[in-house]
């Protein structure tokens, strides 16, 4: 069977369009530290890609931050929103790559951020109109590395997974997109480099968003 043409592109948000992975880490660590709880080895990577219910449960059940998960989640999200209001940490080339690819394909967004922050980022960056679909992992049954969020995005875009290209930066994000059957472009997060096995799931690895051109996306149809 011939490889299908690319019919859609799906972006991750944190670490791809906004330089927020380190901010999430700082805020969560801060909440734990204020409660007098040490930060376990491996917690940062474990939390990447989790949905809001998953990471708030992790903070309360594993790290032992006191309070109900939903209240801890609300505190973390409020702190992140405050940071975004002060300065939206868009990554270099973020606006340009979205506009560039939106002129060729319908775009989706598959994010572990809560809906509140997704909408805040897209509205502040004047990019909301560029995305036909956006889905938060809190709106599906499981966060990344589950394929659920990507499966829902391509369902709403009405394309087959193998007709879509995902743009991801983290281990769990790469695994999520690949498990859903999308072709994957990796833009490795320099602060939290993906695991080698996760990076190996990508069809191509680039060093910056400027490297992601329409011709590169089109070429993925031939790579299989």
TrEMBL record:
SUPFAM superfamilies xrefs: HAD-like
GO molecular function: hydrolase activity
Domain of life, source organism: Bacteria
Classification lineage: Bacteria, Bacillati, Actinomycetota, Actinomycetes, Propionibacteriales
Keywords: Hydrolase
One Pfam family named in its UniProt record: Hydrolase
Organism per entry: Kribbella steppae
Name of protein: HAD superfamily hydrolase (TIGR01509 family)
């Amino acid at each position: 069977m011939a490889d299908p043409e690319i019919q859609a592109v799906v972006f991750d948000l944190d670490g791809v369009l906004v330089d927020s992975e380190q901010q999430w880490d700082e805020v969560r660590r801060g909440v734990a530290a204020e409660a007098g709880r040490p930060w376990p080895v491996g917690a940062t990577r474990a939390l990447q890609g989790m949905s809001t219910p998953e990471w708030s449960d992790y903070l309360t059940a594993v790290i032992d931050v006191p309070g109900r998960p939903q209240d801890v989640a609300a505190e973390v999200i409020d702190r992140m929103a405050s940071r975004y209001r002060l300065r939206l940490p868009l990554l270099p080339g973020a606006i340009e790559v979205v506009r560039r690819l939106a002129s060729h394909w319908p775009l989706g967004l598959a994010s572990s951020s809560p809906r509140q922050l997704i909408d805040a980022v897209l509205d502040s960056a004047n990019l909301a109109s560029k995305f036909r679909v956006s889905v938060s992992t809190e709106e599906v049954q499981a966060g990344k590395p589950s394929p659920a969020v990507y499966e829902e995005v391509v369902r709403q875009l009405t394309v087959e997974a193998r007709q879509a290209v995902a743009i991801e930066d983290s281990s769990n994000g790469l695994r999520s997109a690949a498990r859903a059957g999308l072709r994957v472009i990796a833009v490795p997060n320099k602060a939290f480099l993906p695991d080698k096995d996760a990076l190996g799931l990508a069809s191509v690895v680039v060093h910056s968003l400027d490297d992601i051109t329409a011709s590169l996306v089109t070429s993925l149809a031939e790579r299989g």
